[in-house]
Specification:
- The chain is of the alpha+beta class and 72 residues long.
- Helices cover 17% and strands 11% of the residues.
- The chain is built from 2 helices and 2 strands.
- It has a two-stranded antiparallel sheet with strand order 1-2.
- The longest helix is centred in the middle third of the chain and has 6 residues.
- The N and C termini lie far apart (72 Å).
- The model has no long low-confidence stretch (mean pLDDT 88).
Length: 72
Amino acid sequence: MNLQCTVMNGVVVLDPGLDLPDGTRVELVIQQEPLAASTLGQRLLKLAGIAKGLPVDLAEQHDHYIHGTPKR
């Protein structure tokens, strides 16, 4: 028998009209919603534009700022 229920405040609550006698043993199977697949690019895009105070030429001169090489 399959029953539908909901967890409310940490307690499993049966749907209305479903009465089980006290002491009835049940097996609980958790059905999680599948997570929407996202690419690395989509996850990184959430971070785009949040860094403040960076040099305006960071993209062109990243080797200079990261590794200390002379500017081109």
